[in-house]
Automatic annotation (TrEMBL):
Residue span, Aminoacyl-transfer RNA synthetases class-II family profile domain: 88-426
UniProt-listed GO biological process terms: asparaginyl-tRNA aminoacylation
Enzyme class (EC, first level): ligase
Protein name: asparagine--tRNA ligase
EC numbers for this chain: 6.1.1.22
Keywords per UniProt: Aminoacyl-tRNA synthetase, ATP-binding, Ligase, Nucleotide-binding, Protein biosynthesis
Protein's organism: Leersia perrieri
Length: 436
């Protein structure tokens, strides 16, 4: 807001203290602007400095600062235009998320942050232990950890009497509630100790995980598509009623992203809302990639997982920016809980891909048949005993069910056009960085 002072304004003598970063209290009358870029300005009658800011040391100067630099001052970056806008759009997307699920009869369930199971089976978990802190004073940390005769950690002496981790996904717990209450969703922080320094990975991110009872993969894909169209549409007032007030706030922010961050993003998001998503089987996707004759860094072959470059080629080049859902992946590259298809080779899995971000959603129909699920745990060398409660869901009144997980920061990235996922969460956690 442009504030106009004259030498007669009360407090004018403090003008030298009104520097970048200072906080001030301003009183006056809003009037239409005399020229300039702003519609209105404030004719100040009184001004006083509340908190001074030393202009020689305040880290964020008026000139444009790089995103990398702003990450090093994450405690001050929310004061910039860009990070203010990201925070508001993130808030609107969270509100729209709850609104979508609540209006459709889903119950929000809190899944635990500390867990003893590895949902994705990828071994990317952070340990939660008091063994280290309890012995930290001695200096030598590892030596003091109790071990069994064969030299392994003696977990019976740890806080939970067994290995415990920060959760990688709330899904397994979500399934327990879906098979009791019907449709539920979780929305909370999840953690992955994967050492990938990319623009799409965080060690701590928020995940939205709906779980639908009496549902198959088609229901799951339909839910994922409606959800994405709803929350993106919500940013442009396409959804009315009570969501409207935040949407109006977002309009200015979306114009800002459209002008300064990614030109044309509003049109591209509108397309997402209005056009149908492309559906493709994994096998067809492999054929498409092989047929493209494009040189990829990673090999393309039936049985291998799709890499980000493949996913981006499919949505950005092959389908001109439309979201694409790929289904029926080889069972070897997917988690143990996914339902086996009749071909014996693939599972009822789906990934939803969007331009720039690649995989935004990963989901599946769950294996509801006890014998199949037990066989799958054996095949993947997972210990059936530690999944006893999860298997109980198949022992007692098992129902077909399906769900998906959406990485909330990837959604913010997609909706704002921000290049790097580290700029979509207030305090990013990535390898080598947990300062703030
Ligand atoms: O595909 P993922 O690993 O699926 C699951 O965790 C299932 N349990 C979900 C379910 O069916 N309930 O992760 C789901 C989504 C990904 O599609 C991606 O958007 C996001 O979570 N994600 C990450 N986002 C940021 N940083 C990371 N390191 C991420 N890993 C996954
Ligand atoms: Mg996935």
């Amino acid at each position: 807001m442009q504030c106009v002072l004259t030498p007669d304004t009360e407090g004018y003598d403090q003008i030298d203290s009104i520097t970048t970063g200072a906080s001030v209290l301003v009183e006056g009358l809003v009037a239409s602007s005399q020229g300039g870029k702003q519609k209105v300005e404030l004719k100040v009658s009184k001004i006083s400095v509340i908190g001074e800011s030393d202009p020689t040391s305040f880290p964020i100067q008026k000139k444009r600062a790089s995103r990398e630099f702003l990450r090093s001052v994450a405690h001050l970056r929310p004061r910039t235009n860009t990070f203010g806008a990201v925070a508001r759009v993130r808030n609107a997307l969270a509100y729209a998320t709850h609104k979508f699920f609540q209006d459709n009869g889903f119950v929000w369930v809190a899944s635990p942050i500390i867990t003893a199971s590895d949902c994705e089976g990828a071994g990317e978990q952070f340990y939660v232990t008091t063994l280290i802190s309890n012995s930290a004073e001695g200096g030598s940390l590892v030596k003091d950890i109790p071990s069994t005769k064969d030299g392994r950690v003696d977990w019976s002496q740890d806080f939970f009497c067994k290995p415990a981790f920060l959760t990688v996904s709330g899904q397994l717990n979500g399934e327990t509630y879906a098979t009791a209450l019907s449709d539920i969703y979780t929305f909370g922080p999840t953690f992955r100790a994967e050492n990938s320094n990319t623009s799409r990975h965080l060690a701590e991110f928020w995940m939205i995980e709906p779980e639908l009872a009496f549902a198959d993969l088609n229901d799951d894909m339909a839910c994922a598509s409606s959800y994405l169209q709803y929350v993106v549409g919500a940013l442009f007032c396409l959804v009315l009623n009570s969501v409207k007030y935040i949407l109006e706030n977002c309009k200015e922010d979306m114009d800002f992203f459209n002008t300064w961050i990614e030109k044309g993003i509003i049109d591209r998001l509108n397309d997402v809302v209005e056009k149908n998503f492309v559906h493709l089987s994994y096998s067809d996707a492999i054929e498409l990639l092989v047929g493209s004759k494009k040189k990829f860094e990673f090999p393309v072959k039936w049985g291998l997982d799709l890499q980000s470059e493949h996913e981006r080629y499919i949505t950005e080049v092959a389908f001109g920016g439309r979201p694409v859902i790929i289904r029926d992946y080889p069972k070897e590259i997917k988690a143990f809980y996914m339902r086996q298809n009749d071909d014996g080779k693939t599972v009822a899995a789906m990934d939803l891909l969007v331009p720039r971000v690649g995989e935004l959603i990963g989901g599946s129909q769950r294996e509801e048949r006890l014998d199949y699920l037990e066989a799958r745990l054996d095949e993947q060398n997972l210990n059936k005993d530690s999944y006893w409660w999860y298997l109980d869901l198949r022992r007692y009144g098992s129902v077909p069910h399906a769900g998906f997980g959406l990485g909330f920061e990837r959604l913010v990235q997609f909706a704002t056009g921000m290049d790097n996922i580290r700029d979509t969460i207030p305090f990013p956690r990535v390898p080598g960085s947990a300062e703030f």
